[in-house]
Structures are given as structure tokens and as C-alpha cells.
Amino acid sequence: MAVKLGRYGIWRGAAGLTPELAAEVEKLGYGAIWIGGSPPADLALAESLLDATSTIAVATGIVNMWTADAKTVGASYHRIAAKHPDRFLLGVGIGHPEATAEYQKPYDKIVSYLDELDEAGVPVEGRALAALGPKVLKLSAERTAGAHPYLTTPEHTRQARELLGPDALLAPEHKVVLETDAARAREIARPPINMPYLNLRNYVSNLRRLGWEESEIADGGSDRLIDALGLHGDAQTIARGLNAHLEAGADHVCLHNLPDDANPLPTYRALAEALF
């Protein structure tokens, strides 16, 4: 693929991203900034982050197919790609059924949206697909550069690589809490993991496929599950947890600092020292 993401990037909600933060993240050596949530079809934030930097890639994680018109997204993609060649990756996905009243036949929606991106001239290598289950993972390899799984573990990465084959992009997100006190780390990680994700069918189904019992998913998640989905510890411990995704077959891992509303730079700096 043309866009070079590097081995590690950061994932942060759109509201918490600024051009100033992007410049700092680039200086620390990260390869990509992933815009979390459902950024609008104009992709203005992605453009502003690219304008403020010179080498780091920017990706969307993800543009929601139900709310962002594909033709508008396609035009936005071409505007940004012309201005910043080989630095923008368009991540797209369908979100989850509970968030969209008209959510029907999600697989068909993905296929039709990718068809529209084809018509808009968005290249296969310039886009990625949010994917968890086997069917959509396979589609991501067929119709895009590859997959951007969210709320996963290295075991999912291992299984995903087997489905994707050796050449497709695999760029999972993983939440981190730079905190050595396990109880405190779980207090930070559990609320954003539980609500909404442990109450959404696509994420719960994925965890069940990975072998997690209902008893560990229910009631806010067991400590073991929260520890698996929200890495905690010192920087070296978290770095080893992130690196496990690469060992399992990922090309790139984007770390998601918790809590979301905290200043992420101390965590980014500490992890950069451990990772690079």
C-alpha cells in the first residue's frame, strides 16, 4: 500500500485532536494518527492535521457509512490525497446496529458503499475497512488495503491474519492505561469499555468467538477481560502488550490512551521511549 503507517500510531477521538497535538505526536516518532469516532464526510479534521505535519500519516477510524455520503467522502479523499500524497488512509465502517435506526443488512451496506467509493475513484490501497468477524475481514482484504479492528486482543490479530492472508493491512486498535496500580487502572478502563462496547452485539459476538464466556462479559466485564482489552502497567509492560499484536501478525498497532479526556502527551512520550 502507498500510505506508510509505521509500526505504531495513536488513536484518539476527533474532539481530542488538534493540529498542535498532531505536531507533537509526529515529533515523538509515531507513524500515524487515527481519528476516532465518526468524522463528517468533509474530512476537514484530517486535512488540518496533515497541514500541521510533514511526514506522519492520518487515518480515519472510522468514517461511518450510514452518516457520511460516499460521494462526498470520495471528493474529500481526492482533495486531501492531492494535497498530501501517500499520507491519508480512509478508514470506513458501519459502526454498530444500536446506533443507527436504519441499520439493516450491514454486509450489503458495506459492499454498496465500497462500490460507491469505486465509482468515486477512491483507490483500493487508499482505504481500509473496520472489521471484526471473518466475513468482513475477508472482504477487507478483497476490496480495501485491509482491516482496522477495534477492541481486540493479540489472539484476534492472529486469527485475522490467517483470514486476511499475508499481504493485506492489519492495523488493530488497543486501549492503554499508563498506571501500575491494577485496581486503579481497571477503574479507568472499565467504564469506557463497558459502555458502550460490552453492550453492543458486534463486539460481544467477537469476544465470544475469541472464547470469552458470557459471565466474563456481563456486568461490566471481569477483571481478566478488562485487563486484556485495556493494557495497563508501566511503559515497558504496555509496550510488550502492544508488540504482541505485531508478533501475532499485525502490520501496525494504534494505541488508544485512557481516559479519553486526559492529556495524552505524557503517555505518548513514555510509550514512545519504550517502543522506539
TrEMBL record:
GO terms for molecular function: oxidoreductase activity, acting on paired donors, with incorporation or reduction of molecular oxygen. One of its GO terms (cellular component) is cytosol. Residues 19-109 form the Luciferase-like domain. It comes from the Bacteria. PANTHER family: CONSERVED PROTEIN, LUCIFERASE-LIKE MONOOXYGENASE. This is LLM class F420-dependent oxidoreductase. It comes from Prauserella flavalba. The lineage of its organism: Bacteria, Bacillati, Actinomycetota, Actinomycetes, Pseudonocardiales.
